[in-house]
Write a structure and sequence with these properties.
CATH superfamily: Ribonuclease Z/Hydroxyacylglutathione hydrolase-like
Radius of gyration: 20 Å
Helix content: 25-40%
Number of strands: 12
Number of helices: 9
Number of domains: 1
CATH architecture: 4-Layer Sandwich
Strand content: 15-25%
Mean pLDDT: 94
CATH topology: Metallo-beta-lactamase, Chain A
CATH class: Alpha Beta
Order of helices and strands: HEEEEHEHHEHEEEEEHEHHH
Low-confidence stretches: 3-16
Length: 284
């Protein structure tokens, strides 16, 4: 009986590992040129950005470790020097930092100071991928003749977000301060805040113009109008859920009442309408 139990556990672990590997088998890393030698990269997980050139690649976010080889192949295809020279993490979530342990070896990994604190205590995170340059204030860089600024943000998606602003190229990487066309994930357990998320969205809108190309954390490439749409959705749905609370509705009753057909298209598999209402209902 004991031997059977051991075999069963071993088989379960094997099939679990195989399923995890298969999850990425068909993922392709696509590179979209934006401005000069700045690219948006998509695959599975948070959208990435890359600045290519003779100094090596500056890569924004690292997706999953299982995709590292595919990411490196794509970087080699779009750059004569596909070697990563600098890695930036927009925050600490696994779909943005799991690849650190492969893609960040031997290079500077830059992140908000709170990202380091959270990853250091995360038992699932490989400590070989810990950030090595920690920010609390904006940092200006110039790599491959591209000027950029790494800007730590007040609490919003988490307590450790930063955005990447290519001012001259007019490209903004928001990290998960934007989920284009979707209800956003606001990780309140990691210091996130609905009010902070809304305020930071306003700050980003004020920073850019109508021609700015906006790389969201998730979703398609967008622009200032897309950020405005997200802001309007958040403000309107927050006001609606607050009206439910003011009328005395419980959380369960608010979920049952819903947000109406107007917001059905924002629902997705991770942040469903129900989960978004739950987030808004608990907002201060």
């Amino acid at each position: 009986m004991r031997l059977f139990t051991v075999l069963a556990v071993s088989l379960l672990a094997f099939y679990s590992m195989a399923a995890e590997k298969d999850r990425f088998a068909d993922v392709q890393i696509q590179a979209k040129p934006l401005a000069g030698n700045i690219y948006m990269l998509t695959g599975s997980g948070g959208n990435m950005a890359a600045v290519t050139g003779p100094q090596g690649v500056l890569l924004v976010d690292a997706q999953f470790a299982e995709l590292a080889a595919k990411i490196q192949t794509t970087l080699q295809e779009i750059s004569a020097n596909g070697k990563i020279a600098t890695l930036v993490n927009t925050h600490h979530h696994a779909d943005h930092v799991s690849g650190n342990k492969v893609l960040g070896q031997g290079v500077a990994i830059i992140a908000h100071q709170n990202v380091y604190q959270r990853l250091k205590t995360d038992e699932k995170f490989d400590k070989k991928g810990l950030p090595t340059v920690l920010l609390q204030q904006p940092l200006a860089l110039n790599i491959n003749n591209v000027a950029l600024e790494l800007i730590p943000m007040p609490v919003s998606h988490t307590d450790g977000d930063l955005v990447v602003w290519f001012k001259e190229a007019n490209v903004l990487h928001t990290g998960d301060l934007m989920f284009a066309g979707r209800f956003p994930f606001i990780d309140v357990k990691s210091g996130g805040s609905v009010a902070g998320y809304i305020e930071n969205t306003k700050q980003l809108i004020a920073k850019i113009d109508d021609q700015t190309q906006v790389i969201p954390g998730h979703g398609e490439l967008t622009d200032k109008a897309g950020l405005r749409q997200s802001l309007l959705m958040m403000e309107q749905t927050l006001a609606l859920v607050q009206s439910y609370k003011k009328a005395g509705l419980s959380l369960e009753q608010a979920v049952a009442k819903g947000l109406g057909d107007k917001y059905k298209s924002w629902h997705w598999n991770f942040i469903t309408e129900q989960r978004w209402i739950e987030t808004l209902y608990q907002a201060e």
